Each structure stands twice: as C-alpha cells, then as structure tokens.
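Reading a protein record of the kind used here takes only a little practice. These numbers are not coordinates but entries in a learned vocabulary of local backbone shapes. Here is one such record, which you should read through line by line.
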Amino acid sequence: MEIVGWDYQAFGSGDSRSKVTLKVTEEDIQWCVFAFIYSIAVLSFADARPRGISDLDFEGDDEFSVKDFFECLHYEYGQIRFHADYIRGRCIKTSITAEKDGTVKIGTVNRGEAASRWVDKLKGKKLMQVVKGQNGQQ
C-alpha cells in the first residue's frame, strides 16, 4: 500500500476536509478490500468524538460493530463504498471508496489529518511514545 495523493484543506472555525489516495495492488485489493475498509472504519470510529448536540448519544466505551459496517457499505458504479456520518453520537464523517484497480480514497470532513494517521497505523508505524522526564519517570 502506497500513499499516492493527499489533500488537506482547513477552513475557519475548525472545519476541514481531507482526502488520502492510496494504491494497493489489484491482486491484493481483490482479497483484502473488506478487511481494509473495515480497519479504517474501526480506526475512524475509535477516534471520533461528539460534535454539537450529538454528545447526548455519545458513549465513550462504545464499539464499532460489523452491523455498523454493513449499514454504511454499498456497491455503486463498480466501486465498494463506505460512508458514515454520525454513529451513536460520534461524528464519523468518513468516506472510503475502493476501485477494482486498487485505488482507495479515504475522505474526511472536520477530522483534521486523522486519515493519514490511520494509514500510518495500518502500516505499523508507532505514532506516540512514552517520554521520560528529567528524573527518569514516565
């Protein structure tokens, strides 16, 4: 998997749009498309927080389910598409499109640069490390 494009636009008052374009081999996309999309969806759900009045429905220990995944998944114009707006109070605002040639696009609204961090996580990159203080404590 290789990132072949990244576009990020920030607007006033914390609003943003982001799109990460990946290239996966055609052979790999055939056998891993559902697992790949599901993995990104889980990471998106885990990072999502309430926005506005949606915090009335927010449960911090909630988990993304296979049912949630299939409710947001559809096949359209030869592409497998995932789109989630809000799920149980979480502002997901994530769209994922996979094409049979191996092109995968991850788009987000008001999620900052989260999509590129999710890809890094899937690649096994460590995003944070424990920093020791001057006295050697964590």
Summary: The beta strands are 2-10, 16-23, 73-76, 79-87, 90-99, 103-109.
